[in-house]
Design brief:
By secondary structure, the chain is an alpha+beta fold. The chain folds into two domains: about 120 residues, Methane Monooxygenase Hydroxylase, Chain G, domain 1 (Up-down Bundle), CATH 1.20.58; about 230 residues, 2-Layer Sandwich (BirA Bifunctional Protein, domain 2), CATH 3.30.930. The chain contains twelve helices and nine strands. The strands form two sheets. The protein has a seven-stranded mixed beta sheet with strand order 1-4-5-9-8-7-6, with helices on both faces. Strand 6 and strand 7 form a beta hairpin.
Length: about 375
């Protein structure tokens, strides 16, 4: 009978110290076993952390022990089954176990990150003695280079660079420049009309009209900008291109001043040996008017493919400001005279850099643009 009684004895009593006594309750026993389980759990967690081989595995261990469904969290939920007198001690053990596990996790994480950083730095070692890679930098467009050179020449002569609107009133684009209603230049085939009295400017001469209207004399300006005309796209034409207009208004200005100015401009732009030639022409806003040719800077005037064998290249139009234009801007033509000229920016770029197709300037072909 005694032997059978011992076989039916609660096996947990084997592990209880003698001081617990035979009347120790189940709740009290649960507190003791939780302490034992906590110690085992802590040892298991620390062992797995030290055996981990990477940050991913370390994170898995964190979730398994400290996550919402982790083993330590489950034990904390079981604290209600512990005797009230044992709960503070067991709770303290849970917090200590958590703190120890978190500390070891952080220590191991830092060790892994340090190792990864060292490996990365070893793999990315830079030899400062090697030649550096040359960065790809953008550069100025040939039109911009040509414009800056023209501006430099005229600013050096005392001119001011001014700008004006690209969408212009019909009055400033035509009437203020002595272009009557029935003039062919006003035909819709040549001009882009926004409304009956608003157009996309066909020339930057409209800027001259604005400046003259202000009445601040004398005037010495150049007006570069984009203009628009209804042209077919080909090697020498485009519906959108750039012009540079020049204007001088002062007392005692003569055609000789115009010739001297343009001769100096041509020498600065194309070379000291460049000569100019004036041919009679007609523009409604200048009288007298002329077309200007420069001696071929490729062959020196002897004749070549570039100048089509003539020895001369046409570059711009010019003339003395028409008295009607002065009157419409409020300037007395009896006291003041002036001259004006206009040159296509693209034409300068084509000539200066020996480009035979205007379309190359706008096609954004990097192989072409890298040459400048």
């Amino acid at each position: 009978m005694e032997k059978r009684r011992e076989e039916h004895m609660d096996v947990r009593n084997i592990f209880l110290p003698e001081c617990f006594g035979k009347k120790r309750t189940a709740v009290q026993k649960e507190g003791f076993f939780m302490k034992e389980k906590l110690a085992q759990l802590k040892e298991k967690a620390l062992s797995e952390i030290m055996a981990s081989e990477g940050l991913d595995k370390l994170n898995d261990i964190r979730v398994a022990f400290l996550g919402k469904k982790g083993e330590l969290t489950d034990m904390l939920k079981s604290l209600k089954d512990v005797a009230p007198s044992d709960r503070p001690a067991v709770g303290q053990m849970v917090n200590e176990a958590r703190a120890a596990i978190e500390a070891r996790l952080e220590e191991r994480r830092q060790a892994f990150e340090k190792k990864l950083r060292e490996e990365k730095m070893a793999a990315e070692t830079i030899d400062v003695t090697l030649p550096a890679k040359k960065p790809m930098l953008g550069h100025r467009h040939p039109n911009t280079i040509a414009l800056e050179e023209v501006e430099r020449i005229f600013v050096g002569m005392g001119y001011e660079v001014v700008e004006g609107p690209e969408v212009e009133y019909d009055y400033y684009n035509f009437e203020a420049l002595n272009i009557p209603k029935n003039h062919p230049a006003r035909d819709e085939q040549d001009t882009f009309y926004v409304t009956d009295n608003i157009v996309l400017r066909t020339q930057t001469s409209s800027v001259q009209a604005h400046v003259m209207e202000q009445g601040k004399l004398p005037i010495r300006i150049i007006a570069p900008g984009r203009v628009f005309r209804s042209d077919e796209v080909d090697a020498t034409h485009s519906p959108s291109f750039h012009q540079i207009e020049g204007l001088v208004i002062d007392k005692h200005i003569t055609f000789a001043d115009l010739k001297g100015t343009l001769a100096e401009f041509a020498k600065e732009l194309f070379g000291e040996e460049t000569k100019v030639k004036f041919r009679p022409h007609h523009f409604p806003f200048t009288e007298p008017s002329a077309e200007v040719d420069v001696s071929c800077f490729k062959c020196g005037g002897k004749g070549c493919r570039f100048c089509k064998g003539s020895g001369w290249i046409e570059i711009l139009g010019c003339g003395m400001v028409h008295p009607n234009v002065l009157k419409m801007s409020g300037i007395d033509p009896e006291q003041y005279t002036g001259f004006a000229f206009g040159v296509g920016l693209e034409r300068i770029a084509l000539l200066k850099y020996e480009i035979d197709d205007m379309r190359l300037l706008y096609e954004n072909d990097v192989r072409f643009l890298r040459q400048f």
